[in-house]
Fold this sequence. Notes:
Layout: H1 4-14, H2 17-32, H3 36-50, H4 60-73, H5 77-88, H6 96-113, E1 119-128, E2 134-143, E3 146-151, E4 164-172, E5 174-186, E6 197-207, E7 213-222, E8 231-238
Parallel strand pairs: 1-7
Antiparallel strand pairs: 1-4, 2-3, 2-5, 5-6, 7-8
Helix pairs in contact: 2-3, 2-4, 3-4, 4-5, 5-6
Amino acid sequence: MKGPALVALLALACASQSDLNVLYNRGIKAARRDHWEVAMKDLSQFTSWTCWKASPDRRCREAYLALGRGHERAGAPASAWASYDRALALPPHERDAVVQESLARAQQQVVDKLQQGERGPVVIRYRDEMPDEYTLRSVVISIDFQPVVTRDKNAAELHSPDFAQVFASSLPAGQHVLLVETQHACKTGQDVPCTRSATHRAFAFDSVARTPTTLELRGYADLAESGVPAVPTATMTTR
Length: 239
């Protein structure tokens, strides 16, 4: 176990259920009162502690929806879109149509804010760190809702101890949405639990005029109970 999974596990070990309850309740109450500084701080901490798991806390959807509203109010539609997208993947799903409307609104705001002025260079590097029982079948990376990287036949080459550069271009200065979607299959002859899996993870990042930005994407195994297949997920680091 390593990387974000280990960090999250250590953080969660330090966070009691009481801590999580305080963060969530205080954050949601602050959001309802439009006290967004408190709301964003508490709910961001709550989601980082307990919403990364294979079985997220049942309150994660509401926390991400509140974060999405807070990002919209702060004029950060890319961050709002990523929060709404995450909320849409979580139960309960009775009000998905409302979340879809929020997602569409944030997407339009992202597109509207894209400027044709100054641009900044952006490089994307990818590394697949899934356990050996998995094989990477495909990777699709989109920026601002348009695919910029598609790997299928040679996707398995990205399973390596080193990052591979998969994209380099310039983007308008400002905030953007990055979406990474992967497909993993199971290798034959492996004596460990495994199941075909798909990931869909959205992130927000900033492109700065005339300043290089490097985005490092890692596909790795989320924690699972003993005897349960590892769950593929992804994380992004900006350098």
